[in-house]
Structure formats: structure tokens, C-alpha cells
Amino acid sequence: MLGYALRRLLGSLPTLLAIVTLAFFMMRLAPGGPFTLDRSLPPAIEKNLLAAYRLDQPLWRQYLDYLAGLLRGDLGPSFKYQDFTVAELIATGFPASLKVGGLALLVAVFVGVGLGTLAALRRNGRLDHAVMALAMVGIAVPNFVMAPILALLFGVHLAWLPVGGWGDGGLRNLVLPVTALALPQIAYIARLTRGAMIEELHRDHVRTARAKGLGERIVVVRHTLRGGLLPVVSYLGPATAGLVTGSVVIETIFAIPGIGRYFVQGALNRDYTLVMGVVIFYAVLIILLNLLVDLLYCVLDPKVKHD
Fold this sequence. Notes:
By secondary structure, the protein is mainly α. The chain has 13 helices and no strands. It is globular, with a radius of gyration of 24 Å.
């Protein structure tokens, strides 16, 4: 299995290089620049700034210099947060994104798997129709609509929770962003679990277990749930990366100082290195989580082997 993991990591390097290349040139093609202001700088000052950050070099040279820095583990300095490097900004924002995203993931998995399992066991019943209807609403309504609604209802009208801000990162500040971030994932996981569980409930070994007189709870937990979780595990790879790195919209709406908020500010300010750093961090996280998902398949499904 170790050899398989190493081969996967080596095979992901061309993908990572393609992501870096595409993001680098797309950022440079965007109109404006990191030092474009409403009031133009004096030419001499602008020339010195460009030279200080090597932006006066040909584009191909900037690209090669950036790749050389990546090989050394250097994501470069931020153009706007001049007292910080990109690595320092990511390290500063990651704990908040990890806390919000991790809690949202736990809520989404437990609630989504539970609702999907109940819907499968009550197939075509009222509970099944209710769960699937709520799931469709959760999928159809984007989080940039749901988040303001939650803030307006529970923060403004009922005044139960703060509508924004991080504070000390306590529970009161986490409830609304975690809920808004988790709701779409609950909907997806519930639908995936329902479909997989219905298929598993009709397999021969489940019929045999029931014929032997095993209780429904034992049949579901021991013989059905493991196979029913396989599609959910596949989905959790990219979903976890998206949740942990923080939703751009959620962190912006609730003023959470996470990676997503830095990404928005970097894009608005044309902070090339900051945007590139977040993109690379996100890409690496997806690659590692997808590898972890493939390895977990061996645990959930003994028929899957990685040599």
C-alpha cells in the first residue's frame, strides 16, 4: 500500500504543475495589477515597486522564478500584506478555516448519513419523501442565499446568535457559519447514502442475514452500512478540502479570518502570490484527501486492493 501511495503522489505532480501554470497565467491575464490604484503612482515609484517584486521581468522569467521558489517551499511575499509572506498568511487563516470546516464536515456526515439511512429504510414513505424534498432544497439553494437568511432570522430578528465576527472562536460565533456551510453537504450526503443503502438492502447477503432471523438494526449496521458508505467516502475527498479551506462566501459573510477571506481579498487586490498560494494549498489538500479516500476503500471494502 505504501508503494501505491508513493506512485499516486508522484503521478499527481503533473496535475499540480498544470494547476500552477494555469493559475499563474490566468492571474496575469486579468486586468489591472497589484499596484493599480484609483490615483496612479508616480512612474518612478511604480517602477521601483515592480522591480522590487520582479514584476518588471518577462512573463516567462517570472514563471520560472515562481516555480524555482515553489521547489524551495517558498510561496513568495504578499504584495498587499507587505509585512507577511503568503505562507504566514495561510498559516494564520488555516486554523479558523479548519475549525469551521471540520465542524461543518462532522455535522454533514452524521446528519446526512443518518437522514439518508432513514430514508432508505422507509423507501417511498412519508419520511423518505420529506428527506428527499429537504435535500433538493438544500442542493438548489446556494449558501450565499442561505447564510444571510440564517443571519437575518437568528441574528437580527431573534437575536440569539451574533451575525458575524470571529470573537474568541466560541460556539456562539460558530453556529451560523457551520450550519450554513454544512447544509448543502448534508443534502448531497443524504442523497448519496439513500441511493447506496437501497442498493445494499437488496443484495443477497442482506437477504440471507434477514432469513437467518437477525434483527433489522444488526442487518443495517453490520451488513449494509459499510457498503452504503462507499459513495459517501468518495464524495468526502473534495468536499472535505472545500470545507476545511473555508467557503469563500461563508467566510466573507460572517467575517471569519480564514483562508477563503484571504483569497477574496487577494483576488480583489490582484495579489498574485496570495491567490496562487491559496490555489496551490487547496490543490495539494485535494490530492492528499483523495489519496486518503482511496486508502479507506481498503478498510470499507475488502475486495479493493492496492498493490
